[in-house]
Amino acid sequence: MRFCRFNKDRLGLVEGATVKDVTAALDVLPSHRYPLPTHDVFIANLEAVVSRVRSIAPGASAQPLDRVRLRSPVANPGKIIAAPVNYEKHLDEVRTDGQLNANNPGHTLTIHKAGLFLKATSSLVGPGDGVVIRKPDRRTDHEVELVIIIGRTADRVSSDEAMACVAGYAIGLDISIRGSEDRSFRKSADTYSVLGPWLVTADEIPQPNALDLQLSVNGTVRQQSNTRHMILNVAQLIELASSIYTLHPGDVIFTGTPEGVSPIEAGDRITATVEQIGSMEVVTRAADPVAPAAITEQARA
User: Fold this and answer.
1) 83-92: b or e for each residue (b if 16 or more CB lie within 10 Å)?
2) Is the peptide bond before 35 cis (omega within 30 degrees of 0)?
3) What's the pLDDT at 294?
4) Is 26 exposed, middle or buried (0-12, 13-18, 19+ CB in 10 A)?
5) What CATH number should be reported for the domain whose range is 80-286?
6) Where are the domains of the chain?
7) How would residue 296 be classed by pLDDT, with cut points 50, 70 and 90?
8) pLDDT, tens digit, for every residue of 47-97?
9) What is the distance between the alpha carbons of residues 2 and 114, in angstroms, rounded to a whole number?
10) pLDDT at residue 109, rounded to an integer
11) How many Å apart are CA 168 and CA 227, to the nearest integer?
């Protein structure tokens, strides 16, 4: 199945070019009081939701996908985990491009030595929200990635056990400001983690390590590769992540980007595609200026 979150937190079942409103299926979710859970309740109860959706989908209202605003299919991830330099050709371009490596080629490590990094959950948006260029005076790049959505708690699982922990997959854009600061700082600006256009359940993608992916900007292809070229595959990434973090339902893992990383600016239209998932369009825009009154209030605080 393909689930999207659209408009004002409606749950949609994607079928071809239409979306059925199956929000009523969320009635199966347990209610919670403070302190709220630190995982995504929808993902944690996905099996129950799927069962309910099957019963109500035939009578659900439908509308064209191009008329809805697509939000992130995961609303409340406990963690956004990301894999740096997980494609050999991207590692090569980072090592040779001074703007990508902050003019320190020797500083670039392989993923085996660099490990993984975290992005702020506040950076998460859906394709319909767009990307806001936070620092127009700095180079800002696009990075298309396959994203793993964790479906159950996983603590120090082996790669042989890892695939049973996957709820589904989505397309990710890891937007990056270039510079010498830590990755988690430069990649955690608001709107710099785009997830969408929907969640495809794991049963529909039995071979996630053999998917074509592509990114174009204003119609020009910039990135094109296949997940078979990842240095660490899906199961190995889950094994590595769970060796340090306990993974919980709704945690997402950005699996790394291939070569072709290049700048974007306000007004660009990004189209990201991953085989067996689909495509999402994301428009970039300039940040709104900070109003003088807001600055005054910040100073008073």
Assistant:
1) bbbbbeebbe
2) yes
3) 58
4) middle
5) 3.90.850.10
6) 2-69, 80-286
7) low
8) 999 999 999 999 999 999 999 999 999 999 999 999 999 998 887 787 777
9) 34
10) 82
11) 16
Q: In terms of residues, how long is the chain?
A: 301
* Cα–Cα distance measured from residue 101 to residue 108, given in angstroms and rounded to the nearest whole number: 7
Residues 6+ positions from 205 with CB-CB distance below 8 Å: 168, 169, 211, 276, 277
Q: 264 near 141, Cβ under 8 Å?
A: yes
Residues in Cβ contact with 152 at an 8 Å cutoff, skipping those fewer than 6 apart: 44, 164, 165, 167, 249
Neighbours of 120 (CB within 10 A): 15
β partners of residue 21:
12
Residue type, 67: R
277's tokens: 């998932």
Amino acid of residue 125:
V
Q: How far is CA 277 from each of CA 169, 221, 245, 272, 292, rounded to the nearest angstrom?
A: 8, 18, 27, 10, 44
Dist CA 234 CA 209 (whole Å): 7
pLDDT digits (tens, 9 = 90+) for 214-244: 999 999 999 999 999 999 999 999 999 999 9
